[in-house]
Structure formats: C-alpha cells, structure tokens
C-alpha cells in the first residue's frame, strides 16, 4: 500500500519545546516569539506568584536579576545543574506513568469487553433503523442526514481520532483566553522544574499554542489513524496513544533533569511518534511520501531510522526548537510495544477481563466473558 499522507515527516513530529532556563534574564528571540504567536507584555508586579506556580527552580530568578514574567508564556535559556535531589523528584512521575499506563490498558480491555457484549443488541438496532429509514419519507437538504453520511463514510480509525482532534482544538482555544494563561501554563505544559508534575504529563499531550503545530500534528495523526486502528483495534489504540503521551513526557523529564535544560514543553508529538513508529515497525516495507513531494518515496523502515537519528542528534547536541527527548521516547515506546508490549500486555489481559466479567455478573459462569477473543488485538 502506498503511503502518500505522511506530510512533513521530519517536521510532523515536532513537539515544540517551549524551552526555558532558570538562570539569567534572557528571553526568547523576538523572531521566535513572533513565530509562536507570543506577545511581549509590560512587566507586572505579579511575577512572584507566577514563579511560584512554575516551580522551585524558578526561585533563583530573584538572585539572577529583576526578571518578571508577563501573562504570555515566555521563557529563559539556562538551567541549574542536576542533582540527586532533582532526580528524586521524578519518583512521583514514574509511579504516575506506570499507574496510568496500567489503568489505560485495563480500561481498554473492559471497553472492548463491553463493546463485544453489546454487539448483538447494536446489530438489531441497526436493522430497525434501516427499516425505519425505508418507511419514513426521505428528506432532502437535511443537515443531520449529511453529517451522518459523512460520519459513516469515515474509517474506524478516523472516527477514533476525531475525539482526540476535537480535544486538541478545545485546548488550543483555551490558550487564547487571557484569564486562563496561568492555568494553562501550570497544567497544560510539562516541566520537571514545576511543582505540578503528574497531571501535565497527560494534559500537555492535548495542548498546542501554535496553530501550525497543532495542524501538522493532527494531520499526521489523521493520516496514520486508519492503519494504526486497523492493526490494533480502537480500544488498544487509545490505550497505546494515551500511555505514549505520558511515557514520552516522562522520558523528556529524565533527559531534562540529566542535562539541566529545564523548561515547559507541550504538544501531541510524543504520542504521535509512538503511532508512527508502531506502524513503521509493523509495516517496514510500506512506501511513504511527503505530501509536497509525492514523486519521492521511501520505505517506512528508512523513514523511522531517519527520524530516530535526527531526534537522537538533537538530544545529544542540545537543539532546543523541538523537545527531541519526547520524540525519541515516543518512538522507542512504539517500537517496544510492537515487538514486545503487545505480547506482554494486551495478550495477557484475559485474567483481568474474566475478573471484570465475574464482578459484573455476580460471579456467574456466563459464556463469552473471557475477553471476547482477539478483536482488534491480534496482528
């Protein structure tokens, strides 16, 4: 199958790292502020409260000079050296990552069980709906009918990611509300120097400040959704996607703490890198092409190698335009899940589903409770 929807392959995975440092009073270059849509605001005497929300690392700003933060998200350039205490702060994010990943796959297993259990009822409901559609007089120009036709024309993968795209759009709009800036910075940007460490690991996956950043990420997610969902099933896909966002952010936390390059990051690129890496690992001979240059094609395996090499170089050389650590963590998680994770996690869900079935039916022996087979779970 020719893949011609992988637009901006090397730029698509950009989880624009809103980098900052905690020493010195330097700000972002004016050209970068314009690119990201940040506005330069007048200094206000409320910087102390903003510094308090962004974490203990920013308390050193008072020693570095009179650096006051504006409501718009601007950041600095250097960070304090890492220490054992700084790594100790990653214990809670590690526990959150493991716990959230387990809950994601457990919820996906229950979701698949309930979906299979209601399939028969849905089948009869569809028959009834088709019969009523034939009996009722047809309406022309009905907006609802047009929407239904468009929805049914989508693949299962496209239907699955529609909710993800809608959530990203809502969060993007929230960034445009001035009164929500502090809340967005605190909960929708991931920064290991912040006091709020766990919830931003998930919420920042749905957060984009730049429209181009969001559009590029969502286009790639939409492009790969059909293959990814047909390969994994919608339940397993959602578990992998949500877990990937948290895992990639934790990998970013570790690398930032090790290198001392603290700063907020946001975007769905880490999770999307997992989806891209999973598809490329499972289908290495698939042909990909950049949308603007469809005449140049390359294999999925070569594309994955190039992206991993680029992000590894960016991480080692300290490039700061993207959060290369999150990209690399997402790619490694996608490769690991296809090679090992599916066998170790998803195919061993039967005891958990059986426990859920027993709890749901009061310990009865009803048939069909053992997970409903491997729908969407087998390759």
Automatic annotation (TrEMBL):
Membrane-crossing segments per the record: 94-113, 160-177, 197-216, 236-255, 288-309, 321-340
GO terms under cellular component: mitochondrial inner membrane
Record keyword Mitochondrion present: yes
Similarity comment: Belongs to the peptidase S54 family.
Main location: mitochondrion
Molecular functions (GO terms): serine-type endopeptidase activity
Region (Disordered): 61-82
Superkingdom classification of source: Eukaryota
Cellular location(s): Mitochondrion inner membrane
Keyword terms: Hydrolase, Membrane, Mitochondrion, Mitochondrion inner membrane, Transit peptide, Transmembrane, Transmembrane helix
UniProt organism field: Stegastes partitus
Gene Ontology process terms (BP): signal peptide processing
Domain Peptidase S54 rhomboid: start-end pairs: 201-341
PANTHER family linked to this entry: PRESENILINS-ASSOCIATED RHOMBOID-LIKE PROTEIN, MITOCHONDRIAL, RHOMBOID PROTEASE
Stored SUPFAM superfamilies: Rhomboid-like
UniProt name for this protein: rhomboid protease
Topology class, membrane: Multi-pass membrane protein
EC number: 3.4.21.105
InterPro entries: Peptidase_S54_rhomboid_dom, Rhomboid-like_sf, Rhomboid_protease_S54
